[in-house]
Amino acid sequence: MTKVHRELLARLESLRAVNLDSVYGFQENVPQMSEKLEEYFNVSLHTKLTTLHFSNYERASEIERTIFKQEVRDANYVFAGPGSPSYALAQWDPLGLGDDLLNVLENNGTLCFASAAALTLGAFTAPIYEIYKVGAQPFWLPGLNVLATFGLNCAVIPHFDNNEGGNYDTRRCYLGERRLTLMESQLPEDVATLGIDEHTALIVDFNNDTVQVLGRSNGYWRQRQATQVLANGTTTPLAALRNSPVRTASRPTTTPAKPNLDTNDPLALAELIMHADEHADEILATLVKLARTGGEGYMDPTRLIEGIIQVRRSARESGNYQVADELRDALASSGIVVTDGPLSSTWTLGTKSAS
């Protein structure tokens, strides 16, 4: 699918490409999988792909969750691929990641979801591993329902023409035609199945309101025992498939406006966090991201670290020791050791120290 990736990437004037490792976050070879994907983008597409690590919702701190959501929103090419759709949903659904993915689309970005990740985009998701590998009775999970944005109320089934089984049916993403037909009968009548053959891409264009088929084979829109073939090389108006109203992202008018986080000044962020009643996690996440990177354009980390220490001091004085500990851990992960004294805190970075 290199040609398809190139065409999609060429549409973006500037590029912030990320890979979501949550889909394969349960595997023992997560770093190797990420490295392989990054190498492919680097060598074959001449594109820097940054992996956003988020493998377990329960084990992540609130700041780590907020950072992940922020970094997804900041990207304009979001890739996710092989792994387990049910595992990915278990990490993404409690995060409300669907809203962040919609935000990427609303800002003219691209979602490139393949294989297991593609299954999560519909209203319902087939738990492939549980059915095919474990032998569970066929059932559906609620999906992220991102495609409802386009008025497509459906379940996505990739690997639609898979034939790895040889003398047994592994079509329909290893479910086989019999099991998929049974599962389709469990869906509400207004929910379709969007099938995608292997080595095939369906490009849903929000601006032109079309779906284009590229790659080796075809797509399929199945509803009420009728199948519409989306033939390779064709472009179809979404109105020909649309089976629900186009959804717009909700923008609650009662939610206080977010503070301006377009700053790399740690002291300004520290001042914000000390007076923030809302969005405190987002401000803290911005500070922690600066701690990880040093902040764009920063050579001397002194002001950055002192800004975070100031936030820690405020958190400790108010009894919010969890936030203080999370900030301390973030600093430690960057090689910065904070020592708390009765009246002040000191930090060390390599051979340098300050108080």
Brief summary:
The chain is an alpha/beta fold and 355 residues long.
Major sheet size, sense and barrel closure? 4 strands, parallel
Question: Number of domains in the coordinates?
Answer: 2
Mean pLDDT value: 86
- Beta strands, count: 16
The low-confidence runs, each spanning 5 or more residues with pLDDT under 50, are 250-256, 350-355
Shape-level CATH architecture of the largest domain: 3-Layer(aba) Sandwich
Give the ordered list of helices and strands: HEHEHEHHEHEHEEHEEEEEEHHHHEEE
CATH class of the largest domain: Alpha Beta
- Amount of beta strand: 15-25%
- How many H/I helices? 12
Spatially, the strands of the biggest sheet line up as 2-1-3-4
Termini gap: 54 Å
Radius of gyration (Å): 23 Å
Helix content: 25-40%
Overall geometric form: elongated
What is the name of the CATH topology of the largest domain?
Rossmann fold
The CATH superfamily of the largest domain turns out to be Class I glutamine amidotransferase (GATase) domain
Structural category is: alpha/beta
Sequence-ordered SSE layout with sheet pairings:
Layout: H1 2-10, E1 17-20, H2 30-45, E2 49-52, H3 62-74, E3 77-80, H4 85-92, H5 97-106, E4 110-113, H6 115-118, E5 124-125, H7 128-133, E6 141-142, E7 154-157, H8 176-186, E8 192-196, E9 200-205, E10 210-215, E11 219-223, E12 226-230, E13 235-237, H9 266-274, H10 280-293, H11 302-317, H12 321-333, E14 336-340, E15 345-349, E16 352-354
Parallel strand pairs: 1-2, 1-3, 3-4, 7-8
Antiparallel strand pairs: 5-6, 8-11, 9-10, 10-13, 11-12, 14-15, 15-16
